[in-house]
Amino acid sequence: MKLIALSSSLLAIVGAVVGLTPPATAIDAAFFSKTTPTLFLPSTGGQELGLTEIALPAGKWIVNYSATAVNFGANDFVRCYVRARETGLVISNHVAFVGAQVGASQASTISGVTVVNLNQPTTMVLTCAHDTTGRTPYIDPGAEIAAY
């Protein structure tokens, strides 16, 4: 996993290039982490797997995440969410129905965005699980979490 902290000047340049509409708010830093390997979810349904994480200082943050769930077996729900490591609190969660049978997609990107106001430094962990015990879906390389 890779961790990058970007300064507000770089973000201002990027914002100018992509044409943000005013009013834009200056930010102090951005944090980003991305997975590189394929990550197989545990075979036990409901058991969590932490994919990647970022450590955030106290303050107000927009947290964005995405992970692509893949399943060539029986249909299953895959749930991905951001959890605060220190408290166990789930900050944001989303779900996809993946599998090789009718009614599901073999791959689906699960993503979310939320705002948090942290009173203390907190580690945000991108976590996924699936519902059914048995053959396991996996998460493609490139699952990511960012805060700015």
The end-to-end span amounts to 18 Å
Structural class: mainly beta
Low-confidence stretches: 1-22
Strand content: over 45%
Rg over alpha carbons: 17 Å
Order of H and E elements: EHEEEEEEEEEE
What's the tally of helices?
Answer: 1
Overall geometry: elongated
Please tally the β strands and state the result.
Answer: 11
Quick one: biggest sheet?
A: 7 strands, antiparallel
> Helix fraction?
under 10%
Which whole number gives the mean pLDDT?
A: 86
How are the secondary structure elements laid out?
Elements lengths: L1 E6 H11 L10 E6 L4 E2 L8 E8 L2 E12 L5 E9 L5 E9 L8 E12 L3 E9 L7 E2 L4 E4 L1
Antiparallel strand pairs: 1-2, 2-11, 3-10, 4-9, 5-8, 5-10, 5-11, 6-7, 6-9
Report what the structure shows.
This protein has one helix and eleven strands; from the N terminus they run E-H-E-E-E-E-E-E-E-E-E-E. It is mainly β. Strands 1, 2, 3, 5, 8, 10 and 11 form a seven-stranded antiparallel sheet that branches. Strands 4-9-6-7 form a four-stranded antiparallel sheet, with no helix packed on it.
Features:
single chain, 148 residues, mainly beta, 7-stranded antiparallel sheet, 4-stranded antiparallel sheet, 1 helix, 11 strands, 7% helix, elongated, disordered N terminus
Give the gist of this structure.
The protein is mainly beta.
